[in-house]
Amino acid sequence: MTMNKQVSALVIAALLATTAGTAFAQDSDAREDRRAEAFAELDTNGDGSVSAEEFAAGANRFARADANGDGLLTVEELAASGQERAAERAARMIERLDQNDDGALSEDEIESRS
After folding, report:
1. Alpha-carbon torsion 25, 29, 31, 37, what sign?
2. How confident is the chain (114 residues) per 10-residue block, as mean pLDDT?
3. Angle 44-47-50 from CA coordinates, rounded to 5°
4. Is the dihedral angle over the CA atoms 103, 104, 106, 108 positive or is it negative?
5. Which 3 state secondary structure label does DSSP give 68?
């Protein structure tokens, strides 16, 4: 197994362990919201399905977050990675809901989402 596959496997295992641990402590609505958010993060093109390429890219999240490549994640690296993912989610949301293509969401556009 290559180093990249080992890191990917460890990241996936850690994500699954974290999700499983917190899922028992939350009610079913919160679990469903978390699953939907995790799926949305993997579904980078917003087509409603996760391709093998999208899944592999999501598994490589540790390597992307490790900005200096030292194999360790610092608070700064995690914060920057979280900000990047939040910006990507916001851009996908605007792309999906922006009915008049002005690059912004009005209250009406948000309320009329399907």
Report:
1. negative
2. 64 67 60 79 84 80 85 89 86 89 90 74
3. 60
4. positive
5. coil
